[in-house]
Amino acid sequence: MSEPTEFRPPTRRAAAAGYIACASATIGFIPLHMIWAFGSSLWTNEERFREWYAEGGAAYLHALNGMALLSGIFALSLVRPWGTVFPRWVPLLAGRQVPRWPVVVLAGILSVFLFLYTLWAIYATFNSDTSEAIFSPWIVAYGIPQFLLWSVGLMVAGWSYYRRTAPRQPSSATTSPSGD
Predict the structure, then answer these.
(1) Which residue has the higher pLDDT, 149 or 128?
(2) 177: pLDDT confidence band, cut at 50, 70 and 90?
(3) Which residues contact 10 (CB under 8 A, 6 or more apart)?
(4) From the centroid of its chain, how far is CA 107?
(5) Other CB atoms closer than 10 Å to residue 65's CB: what's the count?
(6) Domain residue ranges of the chain, discontinuous segments joined by +
(7) What angle do CA 61, 71, 6 make, to 5 degrees?
(8) Are 66 and 34 in contact (CB under 8 A)?
(9) How sure is the predictor about 179, in pLDDT bands with cuts at 50, 70 and 90?
(10) Beta pairing partners, 44
(11) SS3 for the chain, per residue?
């Protein structure tokens, strides 16, 4: 096993972005969705919510909460040392370098998806029949800023991770022109 590479720590801005993305995913998203997942019709069209909930909405909400929790942990991995080197408690991988490209690609895909979802939510809010909506149209006053923080935080932390973990180019002063 080769020795892991040392990487620069994230900047304060990148670290803050990672923590903001984590908080948005966990503290911002999960509590309200957990309330709905357990059957509360808070800020919903109660009749439509009950129908949707009975047809699989509960399982959907629990799955969303699980994905939000994983996304929060992932956001932290972009700015914490265990995002570059597996911690000692991870069986078979402890001390090894985390593969860079899967992390970079996932950060890019997830942040773009969340940003596009936010744009869609804005569009849908102003261009849909609210009488057919399951959730109150006012929920976007909370949801849109929360999703923007989540997506932009992931973008900033992901970009920082990409730059910090990039292979270092050898200095031109240490290589001779003949290539020896």
Answers:
(1) 149
(2) low
(3) 18, 78, 79, 157, 160, 161, 164
(4) 7
(5) 20
(6) 12-87+94-164
(7) 170
(8) no
(9) very low
(10) 135
(11) CCCCCCCCCCCHHHHHHHHHHHHHHHHHHHHHHHHHHCCCCCCECHHHHHHHHHHHHHHHHHHHHHHHHHHHHHHHHCCCHHHCECCCCCCCCCCCECCHHHHHHHHHHHHHHHHHHHHHHHHHHHCCCHHHCCECHHHHHHHHHHHHHHHHHHHHHHHHHHHHCCCCCCCCCCCCCCCC
pTM over 0.90, yes/no: no
Interval 156-173 mean pLDDT: 87
71 CA to centre of own chain: 4
Question: At 162, which amino acid appears?
Answer: Y
Q: Which long-range contacts (CB under 8 A, 24 or more apart) does 2-6 make?
A: 2/97, 4/84, 4/85, 4/95, 4/96, 4/97, 5/84, 5/97
**What are residue 135's DSSP bridge partners?**
44
Q: Which residues contact 49 (CB under 8 A, 6 or more apart)?
A: 36, 41, 57, 134, 135
With cut-offs at 50, 70 and 90, classify the pLDDT of residue 127.
Answer: confident
Give me the pLDDT at residue 87, please. 93
